[in-house]
Design a protein that fits this description.
Layout lengths: L1 H4 L5 H21 L1 H7 L3 H23 L2 E4 L3 E4 L5 H18 L5 H15 L22 H9 L3 H28 L12 H17 L10 H6 L5 H14 L11 H15 L11 H16 L3 H18 L8 H18 L1
Antiparallel strand pairs: 1-2
Helix pairs in contact: 2-7, 2-8, 2-9, 4-8, 4-12, 4-13, 4-14, 5-6, 5-12, 6-12, 8-14, 13-14, 14-15
């Protein structure tokens, strides 16, 4: 949502864009086209997506911990390690990693709990940060996405909003589903996945969310924390959803969960995900360069969707140059053309 507010679009138009793009997602999901597109991604790039997201989620964790910070001279740099919140995050990382090394069950969850206690002891958070509970009202934002649509559809900029949401949400979700599916062993020997139902849920959730007044309700890569703790079935999702509903009553306590508490978990999960490197043939220059570009754009461009697009496009172009036509399907060519058009459209 911030992407469009920063570009001068109103939040009402942004919500309408989410609503329309979710309808298109739903149509693509029901028809099976969305699943076919994801499975058209070459096997090597599917592994590359997991690696790129691994580096990305670890980078987010390092940033939240204050270990990596903005630096005007070098873009990024090492933060102040003597800062108390950064110190707690580093301590939490050491504790969590130690629990994993000793193969303690639910090591990540236990590590977060211990780090939260340490954060309280060091005064990073306090019980005074617990706020009073108030049921939020949906009145200012409910149905705005639909009410704004008749006005938004007459604006040329509105179609840019829809296209951008389609591109970002589609491939962010693709990257997340590919990575999570590979971690739970839900892929075949070609790296293909059967996620039609998951895509229907993703699309319908985004559509309902936009009507309620929130940005894309989609799958999030942080789900890997649960996977690493053994949560690999649909029952886990139902339990989590139920607990989230109950947690509305616990929202006043969220103030005591500091970023330094969650950062170690993100860093550890990222470390697990880059193990996919061993499954990639780095002697193949086409693969190694494509995956490298995917990782760099994902991390430093701070976008999973753009990282996938650049890596996919590089793989296709290099395969054509080397006359490796067997690695390029018709759907791959169509996707590559769409990626190019997408970048041109953004430039315009």
């Amino acid at each position: 949502m911030e992407l469009f507010l920063g570009s001068g679009y109103s939040w009402e138009m942004a919500l309408s864009g989410v609503f329309i793009s979710s309808i298109i997602f739903l149509i693509l999901s029901i028809s099976g086209i969305r699943e076919k597109i994801i499975n058209a991604i070459p096997v090597a790039l599917k592994k590359g997506v997991a690696i790129a997201i691994g580096f990305f989620i670890a980078f987010i964790g390092l940033k939240n911990a204050g270990i990596i910070v903005d630096n005007p001279a070098t873009l990024v740099g090492v933060g102040d390690l003597s800062n108390i919140s950064t110190f707690v995050a580093i301590l939490g990382l050491f504790i969590t990693a130690s629990l994993i090394v000793f193969k303690v069950q639910s090591a990540i969850l236990i590590g977060m709990a211990i780090t939260a206690i340490i954060a309280l002891i060091f005064g990073i958070t306090s019980l005074s940060s617990i706020s009073s509970f108030n049921i939020p009202s949906l009145a200012p934002i409910f149905w705005v996405a639909i009410d704004t649509f008749p006005e938004a559809i007459t604006s040329v900029e509105f179609y840019s909003v829809i296209f951008t949401y389609l591109f970002i949400d589609f491939f962010d979700t693709a990257g997340t589903l590919l990575t999570v599916s590979s971690k739970i062993g839900a892929t075949d020997e070609k790296g293909n996945i059967k996620i039609g139902k998951g895509m229907l849920v993703d699309a319908s959730s985004t559509m309902i969310g936009s009507v309620l007044g929130t940005s894309s309700v989609t799958s999030y890569i942080e789900s890997l924390v649960g996977v690493e703790n053994g949560g690999k079935t649909g029952l886990v999702s139902l339990v989590v959803a139920t607990l989230f509903l109950i947690s509305i009553l616990l929202s006043p306590f969220l103030g005591i969960i500091h970023p330094s508490v969650t950062a170690p978990a993100l860093i550890i999960v990222g470390a697990f995900m880059i193990q996919a490197f061993k499954e990639i043939d780095l002697n193949d220059n086409v693969t190694s360069i494509s995956v490298f570009l995917m990782v760099m754009i994902t991390v430093f461009g701070f976008s999973i969707a753009k990282g996938i697009a650049v890596g996919f496009l590089a793989h296709t172009l290099f395969s054509i140059l080397l006359l490796r036509y067997k690695e390029i399907s018709m759907l791959t060519l169509v996707l590559s053309i769409l990626f190019i058009l997408g970048f041109i459209f953004k430039l315009i």
